[in-house]
Amino acid sequence: MLEVIALNEHDALGAVEGGAHRIELVGTMDQDGLSATVEQVAKIRAVSDIPIRAMLRDRDGFTPKNVSELAAGARDLVDAGVEALVVGWVRDGKFDTHTLADVLRGVPECEMTIHRAIDNVADYGAGWKKILQLPHVTSVLTAGSAAGVDAGMENLLTQAVDPRIAEVMMVGGGLRLEHLDRLKEAGIRKFHVGSPVRGGSFANPVDPVLVCQWVEATQ
User: Fold this and answer.
1) Which residue range forms the structural domain that includes residue 24?
2) CATH of the domain at 39
3) What is the number of structural domains in the chain?
4) What mean pLDDT comes out for the span 198-216?
5) Beta bridge partners of 146
6) Where do the TM regions start and end (predicted)?
7) Phi, psi of 205 (to 5 degrees)
8) What percent of the chain is predicted at pLDDT more than 70?
9) Which of helix, strand or coil describes residue 193?
10) Cβ atoms < 10 Å from Cβ of 24
């Protein structure tokens, strides 16, 4: 399964043409990716039915700026038709389930991708234990380390031994084609890319030829 970061309807169409299975919709890549908007969702839905997972994040880092605004945004994005929300916060070095519950109180049945907050906790294994206790988590985006897949590979492989983790683990963050064989051998089947399908820069649109290359490589 390949998920591609999209910023607009043109990116979404490039992802569809290349054979991506879904998109992670981000409002802007400033500060490593901030919340998607209802307007973006509407423009994509006008041209494609590709599944949309929408980022919900209101500032750099992994602590929230305004929980009530995030909660309102969650309801609006779900009402607009996204299939899941991309969320996650850290408090005192631990995965923050309290903020997560407050933000999602109005959409209690919504599916979730837990994003790279998991890579920013003090104890990676303990973070996974906490996430496995949560309902409706169908993907966990992780590089195994805040520094990316190169640094986090051993963490990824160690955790993927647990089949519950391998099922939801979605690897992204400095992911390159040469990483894929080891990850697939470990039973990981979900992958996430951004700049690699844009010629290396978010200044470029999603390139369907590069998406197709990644789709084939991740199968």
Assistant:
1) 2-218
2) 3.20.20.380
3) 1
4) 97
5) none
6) none
7) -75, 165
8) 100
9) strand
10) 26
Give alpha helix (H) positions in 23-148.
38-45, 67-80, 97-103, 124-132
Burial of residue 156, with CB atoms counted within 10 A of its CB: 0-12 exposed, 13-18 middle, 19 or more buried: buried
Alpha-carbon dihedral sign for residues 13, 18, 22, 26 = negative
Please give the single-letter amino acid code of residue 25: L
Whole-number Å distance between alpha carbons of 96 and 92: 9
**Model pTM score:** 0.97
Contact 71, 105 (CB under 8 A): yes
Q: How much of the chain exceeds pLDDT 90, in percent?
A: 99
The residues, ordered by sequence, that sit 6+ positions from 16 with a Cβ below 8 Å of its Cβ are 48, 50
Q: What is the pLDDT of residues 141-192, one digit of tens each?
A: 999 999 999 999 999 999 999 999 999 999 999 999 999 999 999 999 999 9
Residue type present at position 163: P
Task: Copy the structure tokens of residue 136.
Answer: 């409706």
